[in-house]
TrEMBL record:
Name this polypeptide is given: Heat-inducible transcription repressor HrcA
UniProt keyword terms in alphabetical order: Repressor, Stress response, Transcription, Transcription regulation
Pfam families for the chain: HrcA
Gene source species: Falsirhodobacter algicola
Keyword Transcription among UniProt keywords: yes
Gene symbol of the encoding locus: hrcA
Domain Heat-inducible transcription repressor HrcA C-terminal: 112-332
HAMAP family: HrcA (MF_00081)
NCBIfam families according to UniProt: hrcA
GO terms of molecular function: DNA binding
Length: 352
């Protein structure tokens, strides 16, 4: 995709205004915006022919499209993205909307709170609401990884209190269904009432110990001139043993031990990466059209904002799904305000 910010900065003032008014007109009406319409609202008094020339230039840049011959222009997905990132003027949440959102947080039960927030958000924005429940930081009873394809996997978490949570993540390259099963078996044997973050910390500490043991054993072989490091400190590092015939029985055992430690270290690197990906949460995002794989066919947009607990950790998200011509200037602050409210309320209930 072209660098949208560079395109925007390279535009002159006239092109930038034409582009902004076409997008705003389309978001407001859902209809193509024509040159004659623009001549009536432009700050600079210019002819319809001049406006058409500017629109043709913007179309050549991939920012506008003409759905029908001489029927005006609409923004492309790239154009919408550039508008949202560089020209969008975000308004304030109205007092009426603020009161409705605040009123949805009266219930003490988290599940009921999230349900009411979702319904309120949908009613205010006239879009479909998206409310992701708080991520659990409870002890793990069982963990399972399920491959969903080459670039997607599902982690199924069963918590000690009986709750079940599914999270989709992108596994490290080269992972197979078999390696995921091995990772799950290892973690289930280690779980023992630990949370996800505690599990990952335990594995990272174990990796550090393994690394130190490898270094000690390998250094003795290197000092004796029986081995050398290739790509030390990198993921592709390996210990090359030379003069195999000169290895004494004790040295041979050290080589076998190093080989075993390397295999263990590689497995734990992968498992630590799994846990990191399972814990991760997205930041504030606006997905437009095919930028979001879930909605690429329907041409919808998603405005989503995470909410955080008292420790500023992302534990869930709220959002609005609607057509690409959403009123972003109004929707963005509403979603942001709702996310902040939900984070505050969920944190309060957690203390209770």
């Amino acid at each position: 995709m072209p660098d949208a910010q560079k395109i925007l900065s390279d535009m002159n003032e006239r092109s930038r205004e034409v582009f902004r008014r076409v997008v705003e007109g389309y978001l407001d009406s859902g209809e193509p915006v024509g040159s004659r319409t623009l001549t009536r609202v432009m700050n600079e008094k210019i002819s319809a022919a001049t406006v058409r020339n500017v629109m043709q230039d913007l179309e050549h840049l991939g920012l506008l499209d003409s759905p029908h011959v001489s029927a005006g222009r609409v923004p492309t997905q790239l154009g919408l993205r550039m508008f949202v990132d560089g020209l969008l003027e975000v308004g304030q949440v109205s007092e009426a909307d603020r009161e409705r959102i605040d009123a949805s947080g009266d219930d003490s039960d988290v599940a009921t709170l999230l349900d009411r927030v979702g319904k309120t958000l949908s009613g205010i924005t006239r879009g479909a609401s998206l409310v992701l429940a708080p991520k659990q930081e409870a002890p793990i009873r069982h963990i399972e990884f399920v491959s969903l394809g080459a670039e997607r996997a599902l982690v199924v978490l069963v918590f000690a209190d009986g709750q079940v949570e599914n999270r989709v993540f992108q596994p490290p390259p080269g992972q197979t269904a078999s390696s995921m099963r091995e990772a799950a078996n290892f973690l289930n044997a280690l779980a023992g009432g630990r949370t996800l973050s505690e599990l990952r910390q335990t594995i990272v500490q174990d990796m550090t110990r393994r690394r130190q043991e490898i270094d000690v054993l390998a250094q003795a072989l290197v000092d004796a001139g029986l081995a050398l490091w290739e790509n030390p400190g990198e993921q592709s590092e390996r210990l090359i043993v030379r003069g195999q015939a000169n290895l004494l029985e004790g040295d041979a055992r050290d080589v076998d031990r190093i080989r075993s430690l390397f295999e263990d270290l590689e497995m734990k690197r992968d498992i630590a990466e799994y846990l990191h990906l399972a814990e991760a949460g997205d930041g504030v995002r606006i997905f437009i059209g095919s930028e979001n794989k879930l909605f690429s066919l329907s041409g919808s947009s998603l405005v989503v904002s995470p909410y955080m607990n008292a420790d500023r950790k992302i534990i869930g998200a709220v959002g609005v799904i609607g057509p690409t011509r959403l009123n972003y200037g109004r929707i963005v602050p509403i979603v942001d305000y709702t996310a902040q409210l939900v984070g505050r309320l969920v944190s309060q209930r957690g203390k209770g």
